[in-house]
Amino acid sequence: MNSVKFQKFWLGLLLANLFVFALVAFAIVQNRQRSIDEAEKVAVNYSHTLEENLLGFIQRIDLTLLATTDELQRQRQAGKPDAMAMVRYLERQHARVPEIVGLRISDAQGTIRFASGGVSNAHANIADLAHFQAARDSKVPASDQRPLFSEPMLGRVSNLRVINILRRYENADGTFGGVVIAGITIEHLSEILRTVDLSPYSVDSVWTRKQLIARNAKNDFLDAKGAPPKPVVQLQALIDSGDKQTVYHTAGTVDGITRLVSARQVGNYPLYLAVGLADRDFLQRWYGDAVRLALFAAVFSLCSCALTWLVVRSEKRQQGLTKRLLIDEQQLLQLNQRLDNERSLLKTLINTIPELVWLKNVKGVYLACNPAFEKFFGHAEADIVGKTDFDFVDAELAHFFRANDLAALDAAEVVYNEEWITYPGDGRRALLRTGKTPMYDTQGVVLGVLGIAHDITAQRHTEETLVLHQHNLQQLVDERTQALNASNQKLLSTQFAMECVGIGIHWVHYETGQFIVVNQKAADMVGYTVEEMLGLKVMDVDTNFTQAKYDHIKEVIRSKGHITIETTQRHRNGDEVPLEVSIYFHEGGEAMPPHFISFQTDITQRKAAQQALINTKLQAERANERSSALVQELEMANRRLLLNDQRLSAMFALSQAAPKLDEPEILQRGIDEAVRLTGSHIGYLHFVGEDQESLDLQTWSSTTQQHCAAGQSGHYPISRAGIWADSLRSGQTVVHNDYPSLGSSHDFPLGHVPLQRHLGVPVMDGGKTRLLVGVGNKP
Fold this sequence. Notes:
Blueprint: H1 3-78, H2 83-96, E1 100-106, E2 112-115, H3 130-137, E3 148-149, E4 153-154, E5 161-170, E6 176-185, H4 186-193, E7 203-207, E8 212-217, H5 233-241, E9 245-251, E10 258-265, E11 272-278, H6 279-282, H7 284-320, H8 329-351, E12 355-361, E13 366-369, H9 371-377, H10 381-384, H11 395-411, E14 415-422, E15 429-440, E16 446-455, H12 457-478, H13 482-493, E17 504-509, E18 515-518, H14 520-525, H15 530-533, H16 538-541, H17 547-560, E19 562-570, E20 576-586, E21 595-602, H18 604-610, H19 614-623, H20 625-657, H21 663-678, E22 682-688, E23 694-700, H22 702-707, E24 715-717, H23 726-730, E25 734-736, E26 758-765, E27 768-776
Antiparallel strand pairs: 1-2, 1-6, 3-5, 4-5, 5-6, 7-8, 7-11, 9-10, 10-11, 12-13, 12-16, 14-15, 15-16, 17-18, 17-21, 19-20, 20-21, 22-23, 22-27, 23-24, 25-26, 26-27
């Protein structure tokens, strides 16, 4: 790796860190917006609750005013109102609404004629009050007029800050007769506001069209501010527009604290509620999350830099060992052929190994078994269930089985043993490795013993063969490089440990896909409790099943009776869990509708093993851990060695030829090597214009030129490029594994070779894509 390569490596690190920082910044912004949205919903709910409370109170007062007006009109029609009767009536109405500070009636000149609540009417006159004048001068008939509200004022008798609600009454000729007035203390309005429990710096308030009436806040600075403030611009806009409600974000006029405010009109009355949630309250959790995300980005940056430094240092060391990695090609071919033969043999052996599964209760009575176990006993499951081992094998072997069952129950964990068994059906002798574990119900009560047996007879013979070849294999591995030897030692130290034997069991409703019965193992596989699983459907946990696909496959299973598939299920934490599932259809009966019974096994280890000589590893896990590790390691080492050898050889050859080549030839050779190393058929290399809007084709790979009849045009607008240029648009590596299925989005010049698969890689510098490299049609 020359200095240019190192620079590109560090550049890639920089881009990765910038990408992580961008993701963290995006997450912080999104989390903040989510907190604001949630706070907006809370503020709207609070304001709606307060509106209902305040509206109900005001409507009670308005009904009292209407009732009083009707009584006054009745007495006036009967003659002159009886003063004592009228006062007693006012007292009764006042008692029904004790929250008001007085109920009074004035004449057309503003003189108080009747009053409740101990309010004196001697020489009292309210003609100078604006709200009285508004009622007097109103041209709207009293029957159509809404109640009028005063601005906050100091009561002349109660000496309390109040607002007055009044209704006009008229003489028989329709002229103004006077008003009926009820007073509400500002303190009572504050008590209504306090019915909502606000956070420390949040506030709710009641306004008239001109000023603040009452305010509730745990940290209230209103007294220190002097006169009541006027509505903020946003609240005034709501008042002037005639709209019913609005939400805005502003700093408080009283204390200067920024809040998210939900404001609304109280019914059709000229009163307005404002509930403001302080940013410092509802964003407090967001602050902590933002700090943690920033710390994560910093830690990631430090760790990635350290890891890159280690990789670069290792790469430099490896360059000094290149000559020792040059192994005779013929020996490698022979070794690979031997490994292929052994792998084929082991795969055939493993595919033919039957696994016996059975379940007994604590008394040793069989509860269930699988077809392989039926072959072992030579009886159908229906004949086995309800019986014990003593009904099928000799007493000595039955006692042996029973002792192992009791050992598993006493150990409360998986217990393994090896035992030679004679199949009653054909007399065949087999060595079985048996694992037994207690099975519990949801209450923790032992139901019985679950057993799984693997036939390891052939594996024992294979083990002996592997031991014979061990010395030769070890000697061959020792001849490899120091790096390979270190890798061998690391892999040899990794020991296989058999995990708890368990099979997930589901009963699934045929029509809906709903889980009817789920055992604990099945729930554990995807991270849910049994109770939670019973509320889910197959489509909720299995990523391969949509509703339409389920509707199709259920008919297939019903017609065949049963199938076995490999699928993946989504764990509660988001991970994908690979499983092998055997599904059986059951017609059901009167007590149970038609349903599926499925048995699923976690094949995560099997899938992982398939990536690294699955057959060799599975064989070795059951036979000899050391021999398995050697065979598996050799396969992995050979793969790495071949890839490193090809890559280093290509880099070395290119570095040797570079002084003799001009720039186009170097680019041509580089893209040809990229096609060869990735096993592709075509390749291309474009420079991207400074405006990021055009492509400049520098070269095609040699194989592309052989198969493509399209001319090599110079400049190519990105707007005309198909999805093969998506890596340029997204700034990320893009893979298309089934290019023809993408439809009309893949535009090419006439005569261009068809694409089947495609890989596009953008090369970034200075925040822009400078180079677009791609390969395609890998077999």
